[in-house]
Design goal:
globular, homodimer, alpha+beta, three-stranded mixed β-sheet, DNA-binding
DNA sequence: CTGCGTGCAAATGCTTTGCAAAGAC
DNA sequence: GTCTTTGCAAAGCATTTGCACGCAG
């Protein structure tokens, strides 16, 4: 089923700028965030192009979508080790967390088969936490 | 900060039908799912009314929003013990799971403060799993 | 050159809102 | 009877798509 060769795509300034945004920030980005970062390199980059490239990169396998409650889809570079995320309620940014839970011992109903899991921690990141500590 | 008394709302057939959908299914429902269930009791119920009531019930505190990757927001009855969810990739339904992970030992970056977590297991529910076992 | 990728604007599709009529109390 | 809630249709928004032009290969 899996396509052995990814579809060839051209290297455009727009695509490179978008790709760079993910590499340089190292955290999941929303289409809007990706647009902002990439626009620093390609000024008149349009949001439509960002959406098209995000979609293409997901299909190619270089990005994976990540979702946080009540937020639009974020995307992050693929190929990383199994990990989870931290969502900052202050700056509304997603961060990557190393590691995973020791073992998932949740009771599954009879006949249910689990194939994976997703875990998100919520709170305040280092930059936002102090404002609550005053 | 917390409002000591919830806002009074009238008991309409529509509202009761929507509320019943959550009680009777016992699982998180999307606005569309809630509409379908409730329409069995109130035939010409409109989706706008469902949205309005879901929003009102969340504000009242009787429902809480739950989100699953790539899916529109689901809602479930509030007041339940801490629990997590199972997402069936087959029927695209959310189920409630009892229990939680023993302890979360994820490394948080310096200064990050965690206030909560969310865990979702993915797979096939009892009804959908057999079709993959053939 | 050839044709894919882009920007713009129009088109979706889900969710919200305005308004007159129906219904709760 | 009064004031909230509803259904319908229109409005909003984020995302997607059509199209002619520009650029990569």
């Amino acid at each position: 089923m899996a396509r052995s060769m990814m579809i060839e795509t051209r290297n455009t300034r727009q695509k490179n700028a978008i790709r760079a945004a993910f590499i340089e920030t190292g955290r999941p980005l929303s289409p809007e965030e990706a647009l902002h970062y990439a626009q620093q390199k390609v000024r008149n980059l349009s949001i439509a192009t960002v959406y098209r490239n995000l979609k293409a990169m997901v299909e190619e396998g270089s990005l994976v979508p990540v979702q946080f409650p009540g937020e639009s889809t974020r995307y992050e570079a693929s190929g990383k080790a199994h990990h989870h995320h931290f969502w900052c309620n202050g700056c509304k940014r997603a961060y990557e967390l190393e590691g995973c839970v020791p073992k998932l011992s949740l009771k599954l109903p009879r006949g249910f088969r689990s194939l994976g899991h997703e875990l998100v921690l919520y709170g305040m990141c280092a930059a936002c936490a102090p404002s609550y500590a005053s």
